[in-house]
Amino acid sequence: MMKRIHVSGPSITEREIAYVTDAVSHAWLSNANVYNERFERAFADYHGVRHAVSLPSCTSALHLSLLALGIGPGDEVIVPDCTWIASAAPISYVGATPVFADIERDTWCLSAEAVEACVTPRTRALIAVDLYGGMPDYEALHAVARRHGIAVIEDAAEAAGSQYRGRAAGTLGAVGTFSFHGSKTLTTGEGGMLITDDDAIYRRVLVLRDHGRQPGDTLFDNREVGYKYKMSSLQAALGLAQIERIEELVARKREIFAWYREALDGCSDITLNSEPPHVRNSYWMVTAVLPERLGGKVAAIRHLAERGIDTRPFFSPLSSLQAYAGSASALQARERNRVCYEIGPHAINLPSGLQLERADVERVARELEGLLASA
Ligand SMILES: *Cc1c(COP(=O)(O)O)cnc(C)c1O
């Protein structure tokens, strides 16, 4: 039996095991927060920002970002149509309306031109997503945001370790959010982080995430109804070990991408992730846009699964999903977002886990070439 090739997977070393073992043994009582504080400090330092808040997920980080920016009912927030639904769901949590904008053909990220066309007097923010480790054209996005006075939130869930003009992914907006879900480059099993340089946003987030308590409150003096969004010390210990190894993890991701690029060199009708000169792509998921003659991503996913290779579909446009069916916002997006509707049905994420070996990548490439030759 050939070994199954998984689509994602973490890199866990003695360091992770030692920190988590120490946390489960000692991070209680007055030490309960030690690993959270160390993880947050190391994460903030790596990104060159003042504040980092460890959270249970990126979804909660986006929820708090919107709340801290004062976004609520009657407001509109622009989000790319092709992304994981977690980028958009928090817009609904706060009672605002998601407006789904198209992506760029090369970066697969939010298009500034599309954003411009979606802005209305009710637009309060845009959520830019660093899709699969790639980066949108932040200069153009900032120009649109400045012109209309709207806030930029960066969903860097898929881009830990990526860079845009030398700046770390997650630092390109007023707030940046990360996911440490088990599939992500840097993982804590489940988990997330919010980073910001803005003191007011930081203070607001600390209150909102702790049931409306002021930092340091010991008298259960809840000043408002808030949320309970915390990361456990065991997760933080795992995260600390991972952020200490971030450059190693990114180097491995980039090596895996280079193996694919080489192995698929002869496949001129497949397009892989792009990396413009001013970007360092951390290639969370190596992604292939397939030729239309293959008849869509589902057939390709099945073909590879039958040969022991797990892949994932490129995100279908959010505006095409039942979750948003019938909303006026989704109906308009379906008419408008040509690139999402062209790429979405024809692209897949290839196995990209940190445990992959070159021979695995070559096997995937061979099967993919076989599929192309047979169609
Ligand atoms: C994974 C992911 C999230 C959500 O992260 P959770 O930690 O699962 O909440 C948000 N946005 C994007 C783009 C993601 O890929």
UniProtKB/TrEMBL annotation:
Keyword annotations: Aminotransferase, Pyridoxal phosphate, Transferase
Sample GO molecular function, one term: transaminase activity
Gene3D superfamilies the UniProt entry points to: Aspartate Aminotransferase, domain 1 (3.90.1150.10), Type I PLP-dependent aspartate aminotransferase-like (Major domain) (3.40.640.10)
Pfam families listed in its UniProt record: DegT_DnrJ_EryC1 (PF01041)
Keyword Transferase: yes
Statement: the UniProt record of this protein carries the keyword Transmembrane helix: no
InterPro entries (UniProt xref): DegT/StrS_aminotransferase, PyrdxlP-dep_Trfase, PyrdxlP-dep_Trfase_major, PyrdxlP-dep_Trfase_small
Family from the record: Belongs to the DegT/DnrJ/EryC1 family.
Protein name: Glutamine--scyllo-inositol aminotransferase
Organism: Cupriavidus malaysiensis
Lineage: Bacteria, Pseudomonadati, Pseudomonadota, Betaproteobacteria, Burkholderiales
